[in-house]
User: What shape does this take?
Amino acid sequence: MKRLRHLRVGSSHLREIIKKKDREHEGKKGPAELVGFLSLFRFATQREVFYMIIGTIAALAHGAAFPLMLLVFGNLTDIFTGRTFDLCTENFTKYYEFCPPGVELNSDNFFNEITKCNLSAANMTQNMNFLGKIREQSIWLTIMGCGTIVVGYFQVSFWSIACERQTRRLRETLLRSILSKEIAYFDTHK
Assistant: This one.
């Protein structure tokens, strides 16, 4: 019985000491200690650093895809608007062979008289060229879309793998730290 009382007194005495130290630290609390950027990755191994580098390169490629797609959309817009032509600069003599005799095309009567002409042969090469250009830009868009999906997957996967491994190592370190504490620590700290 004496021994149990002694333990109780000892543990209450220990509690008082810990409370006193806590009060001393509370008065001394200043601003939180700043941590450097590279120290955030102190739990990373070389393999995880490699994963983060690959993930960052994939993220850069993923981010560069949008401006490249804008260029392709700009090319598509140019192709669609490039089919129009300026009547003031157009050479109308090349259309005479498709028009019946007596029909002379010029900038004043072009839209009225063009319906009398058979321009299907002249337009055939323009339409084929137009479709070829559209097909080429569509292929580029498809390639860039597939590439964006792939590099986006690599970006997320490599960063997730690296982060999960570092988080696991951090949690293991925290658990070891908590388990190595004295029992009295848990009596006074919540």
Q: What stands out?
A: The chain is about 70% helix and 0% strand. The first helix runs from residue 2 to 28. The CA atoms of residues 111 and 137 lie 31 Å apart.
